[in-house]
């Protein structure tokens, strides 16, 4: 498996489908002489997970056909998981054939407060039947599911396989040597380049990997650490404009040409500055929870700022999600745990970032004062309940940038892009084209 995944016992959470309704008539036992082997893997804190089961049986063809026909009749099934009955919705999943015969379905159900997506793949090669499950809290990237399915089919045929990264969380960090110092980054996906710029105090491991992976279905996504964090060189004078210059140097070093750029929070300020100072390096611009840099910013409350700077992870997370969205908050915390552990941003850097943000708000940065020069098509988005960025700031930016589109997500906060990923990612992908 790729870096970041580990093998676990495949019998820790036994699952038994109820052979009723559309599954009635399926055999509950293997035929005499059948050989069975199973293996399970998880990434990071436990999701996503992969369970692979292969059975060698002379009656494989008939059993496979019956199983696929039964599942094709189903719109919902019930099963026992750790002695608890779980009810799941079932729908077909469009995947290319990856063995002599194959079929794929998606199960959706709730478990201990989390929404689970279980992509279920059945395949047959001769006398071997394979069953593969790919579980996550959102739809796994189809490219990852296909990679796992093809690897399983290759193994059943006796071939050696090597899986590339299935998620940005399992991509090794690299270092780009730029004219503005070293920059630590990860790149994942294929397609036109899309650069993501992180916000205040965050490392690149603060991006929700599910969000990045979904964008990587159609783009080569680059995430990186801002100045003075991780492998990225510090800057002598840390300003928003200076961080934009370093982002420009990274784009040049990686030969990205004119990528699309998405910035979140402080990262949206850097993205604005990049579009002003280096317009030929920005094709389209997505500003998430953004602020004007011309002196008109309405700052967040002292209470919200203090919570973000408290050093208490529970208070910091509560600043990102509205009250009543504990499920989204817990899901995000679980997802970012898939990344390898990373050093936190040094306090001196965080303090310097805070000063840079205040200067941007005050209109000190040249790029902030001249943001009306941005010509790149721009999408602005935020949560309507953002404690760290009053939505008046999003409206101010939308009025400053000609033709900008503004979208606000109800009952969402500063981390709306992760909370409402199912709605926001398609919007971004459509906007980027």
Question: If you had to describe this structure to a student in words, what would you say it looks like?
Answer:
- The protein is an alpha/beta fold and 433 residues long.
- The protein folds into two domains: 5-156, PknH-like extracellular domain (Protein Transport Mog1p, Chain A); 171-432, Alpha/Beta hydrolase fold, catalytic domain (Rossmann fold, 3-Layer(aba) Sandwich), CATH 3.40.50.
- It has helices at 60-73, 142-156, 209-215, 240-253, 266-277, 302-308, 313-320, 326-336, 347-362, 366-369, 392-400, 416-419, 421-432; strands at residues 5-8, 15-17, 35-43, 49-56, 76-81, 84-92, 101-111, 114-125, 128-136, 174-178, 181-188, 193-197, 220-224, 260-264, 285-288, 378-383, 405-409.
- It has a nine-stranded antiparallel beta sheet with strand order 1-3-4-9-8-7-6-5-2, with helices on both faces.
- A hairpin with an 8-residue loop joins strand 6 and strand 7 (101-111).
- Helix 4 packs across helix 5 (266-277).
- The chain is elongated, with a radius of gyration of 24 Å.
- The protein starts with a strand and ends with a helix.
- 45% of the residues are buried.
- The mean pLDDT is 89.
């Amino acid at each position: 498996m790729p870096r970041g995944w580990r093998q676990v016992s495949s019998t820790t959470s036994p699952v038994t489908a109820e052979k009723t309704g559309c599954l009635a008539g399926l055999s509950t036992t293997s035929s005499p002489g059948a050989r069975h082997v199973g293996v399970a893997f998880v990434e990071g804190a436990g999701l996503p997970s992969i369970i692979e089961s292969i059975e060698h049986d002379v009656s494989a063809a008939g059993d496979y056909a019956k199983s696929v026909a039964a599942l094709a009749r189903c719109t919902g099934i019930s099963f026992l998981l750790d002695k608890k009955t779980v009810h799941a919705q079932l729908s077909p999943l469009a995947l290319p054939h990856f063995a002599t015969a194959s079929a794929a379905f998606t199960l959706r159900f709730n478990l201990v407060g989390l929404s689970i997506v279980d992509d279920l793949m059945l395949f047959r090669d001769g006398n071997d039947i394979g069953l593969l499950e790919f579980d996550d809290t959102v739809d796994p990237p189809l490219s990852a599911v296909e990679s796992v399915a093809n690897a399983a089919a290759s193994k059943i045929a006796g071939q050696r396989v090597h899986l590339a990264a299935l998620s940005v969380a399992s991509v090794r960090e690299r270092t780009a040597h730029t004219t503005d110092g070293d920059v630590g980054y990860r790149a994942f996906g294929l397609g036109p380049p899309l650069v993501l710029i992180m916000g205040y105090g965050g490392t690149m491991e603060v991006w929700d990997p599910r969000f990045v992976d979904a964008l990587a279905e159609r783009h080569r996504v680059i995430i990186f650490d801002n100045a003075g964090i991780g492998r990225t060189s510090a800057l002598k004078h840390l300003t928003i404009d200076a961080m934009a210059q370093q982002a420009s140097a990274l784009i040049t070093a990686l030969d990205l040409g004119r990528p699309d750029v998405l910035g979140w929070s402080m990262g949206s300020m850097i993205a604005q500055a990049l579009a002003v100072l280096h317009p030929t390096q920005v094709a389209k611009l997505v500003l998430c929870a953004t602020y004007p840099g011309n002196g008109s910013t309405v700052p967040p409350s002292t209470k919200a700022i203090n919570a973000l700077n408290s050093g208490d992870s529970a208070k910091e997370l509560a600043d990102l999600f509205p009250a009543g969205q504990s499920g989204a908050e817990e899901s995000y915390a679980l997802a970012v745990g898939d990344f390898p552990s990373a050093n936190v941003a040094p306090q001196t850097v965080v303090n310097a970032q805070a000063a840079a943000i205040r200067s941007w708000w005050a209109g000190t940065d040249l790029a902030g004062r001249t943001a009306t020069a941005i010509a790149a098509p721009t999408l602005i988005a935020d949560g309507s309940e953002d404690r760290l960025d009053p939505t008046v700031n999003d409206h101010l930016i939308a009025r400053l940038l000609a033709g900008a589109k503004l979208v606000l997500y109800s009952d969402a906060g500063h981390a709306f892009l992760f909370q409402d990923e199912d709605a926001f990612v398609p919007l971004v992908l459509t906007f980027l084209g």
